[in-house]
Write a structure and sequence with these properties.
With about 100 residues, this protein is of the alpha/beta class. The protein has a single domain, classed as 3-Layer(aba) Sandwich (Glutaredoxin). It has four helices and five strands. The chain has a five-stranded mixed beta sheet, covered by helices on one side. The two termini are about 20 Å apart. The relative contact order is 0.25.
Amino acid sequence: MAYAITDQNWEELIKNNQYVVMDFWAEWCGPCRAITPFVEEAAQEMEGKVLIGKVNIDENPQVTMKFAIKNIPTLIFIKNGEIVNKHVGALRKADLMEKINALL
């Protein structure tokens, strides 16, 4: 299951995990709901290698502003605390896994 990333825990998660994928989403966003199964499956498959988490933009405005999220879904790929990739919009699971594997 994807980790719940919040305004309170995001900095610590990035600091303590070499690889992090953040999925910025909202309950009312159709494309966000469409990719949720892919994000959840990837979180299970990559457990112990990559921390994959979801950021509800309506409940976590600070982290949303920090990463200047303007459109959702947006996926941010972080390696060693630095953003190395960003994807805006829906994507297929194979494309998501390709981007995650590029982190490693």
